[in-house]
């Protein structure tokens, strides 16, 4: 029987994206060919990603090589043996690098969850993929800004109002260096997802202009898509002599993209988007009683429906975007509801162990850790094994949690972190009742899922 040749995938990238990126790729290809190995190399040069690795390429690969001096997201390679080095090492010793990759052990799979998250991310296409790219790059600014502002309030709720104090400085850093960049980053990386690097400057310009007139995250989303598709088509339409192609991504496309996008934002889009955003803001801040409960119920159910999928992410993106407009209640409902499914399933395995296999009981312990960290995907193994019983139960628990959070008027100023950020002063308001909302939803989830599931033989 003929032996099946090993398959490798690689990513190469140097800071300038010109020479070493392609030299490293060529060196790896020659070394692999000499050993009769199959390799596909994704190059990330000055004109963007080329020969892009597909989901199938990664799935079939026996090992992964990252030869890069720039940031490369390794999340999509979860579960694969991986070696990460500087680009020069691939040029100097490609054969040795291949040996190291084939001898490497798989990445830590504590949570098949992370692999599932990356699979979903890579499967996302079209507008959803572009929007989620923008949101993922925005989140670190939101987290940092929200926590720094909350710390400033720990010195006294009015302490940040006194100019020159430490609390004032923290508040300024959080508000300007954190929250201040949220909207431009959101728009910039939506455009980046569509048009690669040349889209970043036009997208951020669109976000900045939207933010300056109060168009908020809605204006940033529209501006990001506008900038991205504008630059994408300009790149296709504009043809320069080969000797001048190098100036297109650093001069021609950013210049035309920023100029045209900016003019459209200022003269056409900013005013109507600002009006829509103001209306949404007024409606949300005016929610009381039954209306707030209904919104929380819907957001909570969405968070549990597909546990990190498009419906979950739609509720999350909506709530995260509102943080820049100082509307904090939906974010609280969404995080609480996202914590409930894995926590509820952990509790279910404790309350009725005979309804679960030994493997499921072990998975329940991991789900508890993921749940308190606001990683809803911790519920996926249970839902995949028994969707018609598990999904309705976790949706019910999360919907109740979201409704209670809104009813209690809980506010959350950061978009992630789970219980780890809750003890910090002023990150969440009405902390006691917020905890009650999470506990109630967790108990409902556990009782319902155990009511629906039969005992294991």
TrEMBL record:
<dbReference type="InterPro" id="IPR003353">
    <property type="entry name" value="PTS_IIB_fruc"/>
</dbReference>
<feature type="domain" description="PTS EIIC type-2">
    <location>
        <begin position="127"/>
        <end position="457"/>
    </location>
</feature>
<feature type="transmembrane region" description="Helical">
    <location>
        <begin position="290"/>
        <end position="311"/>
    </location>
</feature>
<keyword id="KW-1133">Transmembrane helix</keyword>
<feature type="domain" description="PTS EIIB type-2">
    <location>
        <begin position="8"/>
        <end position="103"/>
    </location>
</feature>
<dbReference type="InterPro" id="IPR013014">
    <property type="entry name" value="PTS_EIIC_2"/>
</dbReference>
<keyword id="KW-0598">Phosphotransferase system</keyword>
<feature type="transmembrane region" description="Helical">
    <location>
        <begin position="331"/>
        <end position="352"/>
    </location>
</feature>
<dbReference type="InterPro" id="IPR003501">
    <property type="entry name" value="PTS_EIIB_2/3"/>
</dbReference>
<dbReference type="InterPro" id="IPR003352">
    <property type="entry name" value="PTS_EIIC"/>
</dbReference>
<keyword id="KW-0808">Transferase</keyword>
<feature type="transmembrane region" description="Helical">
    <location>
        <begin position="207"/>
        <end position="231"/>
    </location>
</feature>
<dbReference type="GO" id="GO:0005351">
    <property type="term" value="F:carbohydrate:proton symporter activity"/>
</dbReference>
<dbReference type="Pfam" id="PF02378">
    <property type="entry name" value="PTS_EIIC"/>
</dbReference>
<dbReference type="GO" id="GO:0009401">
    <property type="term" value="P:phosphoenolpyruvate-dependent sugar phosphotransferase system"/>
</dbReference>
<feature type="transmembrane region" description="Helical">
    <location>
        <begin position="431"/>
        <end position="452"/>
    </location>
</feature>
<dbReference type="InterPro" id="IPR050864">
    <property type="entry name" value="Bacterial_PTS_Sugar_Transport"/>
</dbReference>
<feature type="transmembrane region" description="Helical">
    <location>
        <begin position="137"/>
        <end position="157"/>
    </location>
</feature>
<keyword id="KW-1003">Cell membrane</keyword>
<feature type="transmembrane region" description="Helical">
    <location>
        <begin position="177"/>
        <end position="195"/>
    </location>
</feature>
<keyword id="KW-0762">Sugar transport</keyword>
<keyword id="KW-0812">Transmembrane</keyword>
<dbReference type="GO" id="GO:0005886">
    <property type="term" value="C:plasma membrane"/>
</dbReference>
<keyword id="KW-0813">Transport</keyword>
<dbReference type="GO" id="GO:0090563">
    <property type="term" value="F:protein-phosphocysteine-sugar phosphotransferase activity"/>
</dbReference>
<dbReference type="InterPro" id="IPR006327">
    <property type="entry name" value="PTS_IIC_fruc"/>
</dbReference>
<dbReference type="InterPro" id="IPR013011">
    <property type="entry name" value="PTS_EIIB_2"/>
</dbReference>
<dbReference type="InterPro" id="IPR036095">
    <property type="entry name" value="PTS_EIIB-like_sf"/>
</dbReference>
<keyword id="KW-0597">Phosphoprotein</keyword>
<feature type="transmembrane region" description="Helical">
    <location>
        <begin position="390"/>
        <end position="410"/>
    </location>
</feature>
<feature type="transmembrane region" description="Helical">
    <location>
        <begin position="251"/>
        <end position="269"/>
    </location>
</feature>
<dbReference type="GO" id="GO:0016301">
    <property type="term" value="F:kinase activity"/>
</dbReference>
<dbReference type="Pfam" id="PF02302">
    <property type="entry name" value="PTS_IIB"/>
</dbReference>
<keyword id="KW-0472">Membrane</keyword>
<protein>
    <submittedName>
        <fullName>PTS fructose transporter subunit IIBC</fullName>
    </submittedName>
</protein>
<dbReference type="GO" id="GO:0022877">
    <property type="term" value="F:protein-N(PI)-phosphohistidine-fructose phosphotransferase system transporter activity"/>
</dbReference>
<feature type="transmembrane region" description="Helical">
    <location>
        <begin position="364"/>
        <end position="384"/>
    </location>
</feature>
<keyword id="KW-0418">Kinase</keyword>
């Amino acid at each position: 029987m003929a032996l099946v040749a090993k398959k490798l995938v690689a990513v190469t990238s140097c800071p300038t994206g010109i020479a070493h990126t392609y030299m490293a790729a060529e060196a790896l290809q020659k070394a692999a060919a000499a050993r009769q190995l199959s390799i596909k190399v994704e190059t990330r040069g000055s004109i963007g990603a080329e020969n892009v690795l597909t989901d199938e390429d990664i799935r079939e690969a026996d090992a992964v090589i990252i030869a890069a001096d720039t940031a490369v997201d390794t999340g999509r390679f979860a579960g694969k043996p991986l070696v990460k080095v500087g680009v020069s090492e691939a040029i100097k010793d490609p054969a040795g690098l291949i040996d190291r990759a084939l001898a490497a052990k798989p990445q830590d799979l504590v949570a098949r969850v992370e692999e599932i998250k990356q699979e979903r991310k890579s499967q996302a296409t079209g507008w959803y993929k572009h929007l989620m790219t923008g949101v993922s790059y925005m989140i670190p600014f939101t987290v940092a800004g929200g926590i720094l502002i909350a710390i400033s309030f720990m010195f006294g709720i009015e302490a940040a109002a006194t100019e020159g104090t430490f609390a004032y400085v923290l508040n300024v850093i959080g508000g300007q260096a954190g929250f201040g960049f949220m909207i431009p980053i959101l728009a910039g990386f939506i455009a980046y997802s569509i048009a690669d690097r040349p889209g970043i400057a036009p997208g951020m310009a669109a976000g900045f202009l939207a933010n300056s007139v109060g168009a908020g995250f809605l204006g940033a989303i529209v501006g990001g898509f506008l900038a991205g598709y504008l630059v994408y088509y300009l790149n296709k339409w504009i043809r320069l002599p080969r000797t001048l192609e190098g100036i297109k991504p650093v001069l021609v496309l950013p210049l035309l993209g920023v100029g045209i996008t900016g003019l459209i934002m200022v003269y056409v889009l900013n005013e109507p988007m600002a009006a829509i955003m103001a209306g949404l803001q007024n409606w949300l801040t005016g929610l009381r009683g039954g209306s707030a409960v209904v919104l929380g119920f819907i957001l909570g159910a969405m968070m549990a429906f597909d546990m990190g999928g498009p419906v979950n992410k739609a509720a999350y993106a909506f709530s995260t975007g509102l943080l820049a407009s100082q509307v904090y209640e939906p974010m609280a409902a969404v995080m609480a509801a996202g914590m409930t499914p894995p926590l509820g399933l952990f509790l279910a395995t404790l309350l009725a162990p005979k309804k679960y296999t030994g493997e499921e009981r072990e998975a329940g312990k991991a789900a508890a850790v993921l749940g308190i960290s606001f990683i809803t995907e911790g519920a996926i193994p249970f839902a995949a094994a028994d969707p018609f019983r598990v999904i309705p139960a976790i949706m019910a628990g999360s919907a109740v949690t979201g409704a209670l959070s809104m009813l209690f008027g809980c506010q959350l100023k950061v978009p992630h972190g789970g219980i780890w950020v809750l003890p910090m002063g002023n990150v969440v308001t009405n902390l006691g009742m917020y905890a009650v909302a999470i506990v109630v939803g967790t108990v409902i989830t556990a009782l319902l899922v155990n009511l629906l599931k039969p005992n294991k033989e």
